[in-house]
Structures are given as C-alpha cells and as structure tokens.
Amino acid sequence: MTLDESVLQRLVDDSDLRNLVLGMPKHLDGRDWAAYGELFTEDAVFSIGGQTRRGRQAIADGPLGDLAKYYQGTQHIMGNIYVDVHGDEAEVRAYVIAVHIPESADAWTHSDVGGGYEVTARRTSDGWRIATCDVFMRWMSGAPFVLAAGA
C-alpha cells in the first residue's frame, strides 16, 4: 500500500474521530461539562432514554441534571469503536459500559448500564464535531439507573 495523501487523510480522520468520541467519557467522568459541550456542533442533537437535547448548550447542560445531580462518581469504559468516513461526514459506533456511583462513600452500590453511542460527525473549521448522538442502552444492573425527567 502506498501512503499517498488520501490514505494519510483517512488515517488522520479515523484517529481524530476516535479521539472525538473518546472525549465523551473523558469529560463526563472528569465532570468538565464545558469541554464535553465543545465536542458537539452548535446545532447538534443528542438522544438518551427517550429524551432529546437540541443544541450544544442543552447537551452540555444535560449531565448537570443527570450525572451531577444523582451520582458522585462515574466511570465510562469505551471500546469497540467503528468509524466510517464519507468525505466531510462520518458515522461512528462505540460500545460503552457505564458505572454510576450515587455515593462515593458507598462504592459497592452503583448503577451499571451497557450500551453505546451511535454518532454522526461533521468536519468543521474547528475539526470533527458530533452532529448527532443516540445513546442506546442494552442492559442495566445494580441500583436503578436514574435519568432526570425532561433534562
């Protein structure tokens, strides 16, 4: 295989998109809501648990009503990231196991969710950004998982 410009661009795009999606658990677990919001386009749409959050600010504010309100700690473990680039748009599917700890002093009690993210991303002047993200939840165990109503 010759490393021409198109091959190099594909490799850079793949790396950038993986890092973009990996930014979600990084900033959620680090509770850096502003950095989390910067992963999205201004007009992004985020769906979780039957709720839809529209726009970068609403998406960045979402974890304040969910994660920060109900859980003192989280750990999102992401793996199996699949990237499909089509010019300036891309589709990414990433699988996640998320551990939600209501009380840090009682780490034995937690809500676990297995699922992932279905993402469409768009190349912008600031690099790749998430245009849509649909969170799918396949299973839950432990304490009941709480998602703020209408967040």
How would you characterize the overall build of this protein?
- This protein is α+β, with helices and mostly antiparallel strands.
- The protein contains four helices and six strands.
- The protein has helices at residues 5-29, 33-37, 56-65, 67-70; strands at residues 40-48, 51-54, 73-86, 89-101, 111-124, 127-142.
- Strands 2-1-6-5-4-3 form a six-stranded mixed sheet.
- The longest helix is centred in the first third of the chain and has 25 residues, at 5-29.
- The protein is globular, with a radius of gyration of 16 Å.
- It starts with a helix and ends in a 9-residue tail after the last strand.
- The mean pLDDT is 94.
Number of helices: 4
Query: How much β-strand is present in the residues?
Result: over 45%
Termini separation: 49 Å
CATH architecture: Roll
Broad structural category: alpha+beta
Strand order of the largest sheet: 2-1-6-5-4-3
Indicate the percent of residues in helices.
Answer: 25-40%
- At CATH level 3, the topology is Nuclear Transport Factor 2, Chain: A
What is Rg? Answer: 16 Å
Number of domains: 1
Number of strands: 6
What topology does this entry show?
Blueprint: H1 5-29, H2 33-37, E1 40-48, E2 51-54, H3 56-65, H4 67-70, E3 73-86, E4 89-101, E5 111-124, E6 127-142
Parallel strand pairs: 1-6
Antiparallel strand pairs: 1-2, 3-4, 4-5, 5-6
List its traits.
alpha+beta, globular, 6 strands, 6-stranded mixed sheet, 4 helices, Nuclear Transport Factor 2, Chain: A, 151 residues
